[in-house]
Amino acid sequence: MGNVIPVEIEQELKNSYLTYAMSVIVSRAIPDVRDGLKPVHRRILYSMNEMGLHSNKAYKKCGRIVGDVLGKFHPHGDQAIYETLVRMAQSFSLRYPAVDGHGNFGSVDGDPPAAMRYTESRLAKIAELMLKDINKETVNFGPNYDDSMTEPLVLPAALPYLLINGTSGIAVGMATNIPPHNIAEVVNAIIAQIDTPEITVDELMKFIKGPDFPTGGIIFGREGIKKAFRTGRGSITVRAKVSIEENKNNREVLIVSELPYQVNKANLITKIAHLVKDDKISGISDIRDESDRDGMRIVIELKKGAIPKVILNQLFSHTDLQTNFGIINLALDKGLPKVLDLKSTIQAYVDFRKEVIYRRTRFELRKAEERSHIVQGLLIALDNIDEVIRTIRASKDTEEAKVSLMAKFGLSEMQASAIVEMRLRQLTNLESTKLKDEYDELQRTIARLKEILSSDRNVLNVVKEELIRDTEPFLDKRRTEIVEREVENFEIEDLIQRENMVITITHRGFTKRMSSNEFRSQGKGGTGVSASSLRDDDFVEHIFVASTHDYVLFFSNKGLVYKLKVHEIPQLSKAARGDTIKTLIGISPNEEITAILSVKDFETANLNVFFATRKGIVKKVSLKEFENIKQTGKKAILLDESDGLIDVRLTDGIPNKLSIPRSFDIEGLDKTEEGEENIKFSDDDKAFLKTIYLKDDEVNKYILKENAPQEELDKLFNILKTLGFGNDIILATKRGKALRFNETLVRTMGRATRGVCGIRLEEGDEVCGLCVLDETSVMLLVTDLGYGKRVDPDLFTPHGRGTGGQRYYKLNEEKGEVVAVKQVTESDDIIAITSKGHMIKIDSEHISMQGRNASGVKVVKITQPDFVVSIARCPK
What percent of the chain has pLDDT over 90? Predict the structure, then answer.
């Protein structure tokens, strides 16, 4: 019998359990901080690489892949391996999937994947970066489970997989739950830490805003993110993205377009249905899943009279439309499980990549030096080819030939072997030249590699450069929005990101908003993209750009004004027709919207709304008059029966250098016109005016002298400003006439007034544009046939109100009549829209500056009977 060793059962259980626990922690559940992978993920990727299943090769059956992994590296059951493989291919599970799957790999509804004998897969392009340079001695290999072959203990990981894809796992006594992040933000943070090693976690948070989940959603508050980044542990609140719309029955509906991470859509819908059935949530009449390949869409239809905000709060409270994601940044660091803050996680990755670059560079240097040594021997042989041939022919065997060559020419055994094995074709002059070129190139390569190895900074520069280059194809925008306010202070606006939106209203009254980012810039002459799905008898009549948090004032052909927040207008796709404006504001059946105006607030002093009508009537009303507007609207202007409102603009009453008049009726300063009070100047001001405005007897006017000194112009400017001299206005007509005058010529009036004559129109002409001049913008016009140009406002001389104006466009049948005139800067984009709903976004710099009489250049390619109906300025 063998020896019996007495052991205390308590100690034995303790030791055995710790051994088991460490095995689970190290070998199964916890990822390595260096490559971000658990052993099973690492083995799947390595096995697929060994099988040659690269992104440019054919797919292979998943059963074959699972069998290879199971037999060679991971003997823990085929189903466990397949489940891991499936998750690595799911776009709703991984922010950047590592496996390119072909077939049914499950769904966000919790549908199971097809059996492994039906599905196929290969490596995704991003996974190939995880295996980059693995055959260049960059990482250590160890024996597999049966010691029959080796496997990598870590992958080279040319991208920060742990941060961009995250992971979760439950070990013994500990767990990890790392969220995914946006790759562009992570790369920028890594570069910042390489450039500034002393950077703090808070400074890194300027680059990494927070988790970025593959399913989108909205994160409320930053405190949980800050705590997780600083300590490695934290909790964040994630909500679904929900918008409020109206259906064709004028009932309000909630549209869920994005869910919190890892929420099962089918289970969520079932849960909501049970809550409605049990009367825990009232006000919901129907719930439908209208999701398709274009995206998620859960429609929750509300009962008449239900308050959407109340229903939303109930849903957030009782369902997974709001979840908490607990962050535990636990990973293996040098073989030990550690909870790491953001900086430590990045530093561990940077240190690992530095080691990989060192090892790869040493490998490449050794190979280059070995090849250089051989090429050097071959060159020696070529220089002494006759003697080499005689020596080889005189030898009885290869070994004797090598010894003789080594003795005669001082060669190494490696060089002698290469010479003996040299082919006859290498004796040609061409091959000799190739060898010399190869030797020179090898010397340059050796010098470059030695330069890299000469300092840590050089190695880190390589790490940074390769990270930027390798990840560039995968950089994308955030999917998960982050709202500053904590969820306890929830308001409906917190669900809406502050961004520029394109608002459109059709002739039949359908409206919607779209992000301005949906329209990519094109060169002039482009054909645009479809912006609406319209009926044959409808076309887009108005287009406007405003922030989601701005107010929009809607002015109608009846002279009424209505008010909405931009985010209250439904956000729809470019192809959608939109919702009728009558469901959003209390507009009457025979009323149409003719002008819109965006306003940030109503508190700014001295702001006025300046009106212009088709018949040339103008009017100025204080903006504060429109702060309190009922659902049924408020009177804004009295209109003649044959007239219509063309545009409204904000003015601030503050002049700029463009507002300085070029001529002045100094003799008539104290006179009044049409009972209106004129500007009052002091005697000193009048005396100064007569020094800078010189009398021209031919035209009997005082004209501003040419090349007036800047100090005199500044003094004139200050006089005008003190006396309330305001913005300059330009009214433009469709037949090419424009009048420039100062807004002070139009006194501030009440809302229920008609206004005064702004421009004298020729027969058949009408106003098509209103500009309030400033020092940074120019005029831009577009004709109905797609021609346009930019015009410097300085080309127009200020005149009195009610005069005929000056020519600004040479009327041309081939190029059409002017449909719109806007103010733009060089940093603006222009969105033009046609009667068939096509939009084109153009950089204003691409539209040439021309004189007043020019007819413009082709801006939009028009195929008749289509025509341009409007343009809008879109700040970049």
Answer: 44
Tell me 147's DSSP state: S
Name the token pair of 352: 């690992």
ω into 865 cis (within 30 of 0): yes
Is 551 marked active-site? Answer: no
Residue 40: Cβ within 10 Å count: 21
Given the residues 17, 20, 82, 118, select the one marked as catalytic: 118
Question: Residues with Cβ < 8 Å from 640, sequence gap 6 or more?
Answer: 615, 617, 754
For 37-156, CATH number out of 2.60.40.150, 3.40.50.720, 3.90.199.10, 2.30.30.140 equals 3.90.199.10
Overall fold of domain 366-471: Topoisomerase; domain 3 (1.10.268)
Strand spans (E) along 476-537: 481-483, 500-506, 510-515, 521-522, 529-530
pLDDT computed for residue 689 by the predictor: 79
Distance of CA 862 to the CA centre of its chain: 30
Does the pTM exceed 0.90? no
For the domain with range 241-320, which CATH number is right: 3.30.1360.40, 3.60.10.10, 3.90.1150.10, 3.30.420.270?
3.30.1360.40
Stretches in the chain below the pLDDT threshold 70: 1-2, 21-27, 424-430, 486-498, 507-508, 517-542, 604-606, 653-681, 699, 720-725, 874-876
**Which amino acid does the sequence have at 207?**
F
Report pLDDT for 79.
92
In this prediction, residue 487 carries a pLDDT of 60
Q: What is the DSSP string of 684-740?
A: HHHHHHHHHEEEETTTTEEEEPTT--HHHHHHHHHHHHHTT---EEEEEETTSEEEE
φ/ψ (deg, to 5) at 255 = -110, 115
